[in-house]
Specification:
The chain has about 375 residues and is α/β, with parallel strands linked by helices. It has 14 helices and twelve strands. The strands form two sheets. The protein has a seven-stranded mixed β-sheet, sandwiched between helices. Strand 4, helix 6 and strand 5 form a beta-alpha-beta unit. The protein binds pyridoxal-5'-phosphate (PLP).
Length: about 375
Amino acid sequence: MKFATKAIHAGIEPDPSTGAVMTPIFQTSTYAQEEPGKHKGFEYARTQNPTRHVLEKNLAALENGVDAICFSSGLAAQDAVIKLLVAGDEVLAVNDLYGGTYRQMVRVWGNWGLKSRFIDMYNADNLEKEIGPDTKLIWVETPTNPMLNIVDIEAVCRIAKKHGVMVCVDNTFASPYLQNPLDLGADIVLHSATKYIGGHSDVVHGCLIVKDSELGQRLHFIQNACGAVPGPQDCFLILRGIKTLHLRVQRACENAAVIAQYLAKHPKVDKVYWPGFESHPNHAVAAKQMRMFGAMVSFDLKDNTHSNAMRVLSSTELFTLAESLGGVESLIGHPSSMTHASIPREERLKVGLTDSLIRLSVGVEDVEDLIGDLERAI
Ligand SMILES: *Cc1c(COP(=O)(O)O)cnc(C)c1O
């Protein structure tokens, strides 16, 4: 099956007990057993829930994996991946990544003996000299947030494999429609399904997808032992969102391409960050590993004072000033004071994340209206 067909059909059968075409919300905490241990595969809803189970089968298909594990948030999914490690192990992560990922690794897992280092992976060869005896996990996010750098997933996985190191790719910004890291050699794919997969900014959810069923079993064990499960209604909303994932992401990417080109020509705009530009340093890698170039665009203003950025951020009307991304509606954000405030300023500046950087999550509205909104604000 190709992507759109999988989005709508993979793992989804009419409900056997009623014929309901849409997967029901199984709002139950427990399941009747005929005699002790004799049941229909469901015992207690932390361990298994039928709505969640259908979603997991669907997500596994979208990422070409064999198993998926759904969590109450993207960061709960990350937490489970880190629990595959032990104290003293090291994670090498991309140096421009989601602020919450950095915060959890350093400020929570750092207290439990996790070593984490944030390094430049845009030239994958840099990675090889950084891998040490304690390195057990490589954490990739691409496109990165908010600088929209591109990491060559295949090249990173090749190096990791040589050293027996596991690779987890946070595929939130691309979505499974644009990029499938398991096909490129990754061991685990992570999504904050809160973003494109859910797509309507109405649910917080996370998932992991793997291509090795033994690794999947270890992650299911961690989830059941630690408990960060999503509720069935949230799983239903994610399933519903996925049915239009390909349509939404395609339109959002088309809109983003038009907006990136508009911004690049704007006299008051300085740098525009979008992997679709041929001048983007890793454009060729993006073209190789992504179906389209994504719907996130970041830019700096020529008058790059904090106050000028604040003026633009508070004057858009269609672009809502808010955290998050990946919904049908367009959002505008200020990474240095919002999503990335938990990263120290010196670290932010090192990767080009200035105080005036503005990030757009382009939605699926009419692009002429979105450009009109930016034109008035800038
Ligand atoms: C939002 C986000 C997360 C965290 O996901 P939650 O669902 O908010 O816990 C992780 N990675 C990226 C790239 C994100 O955008």
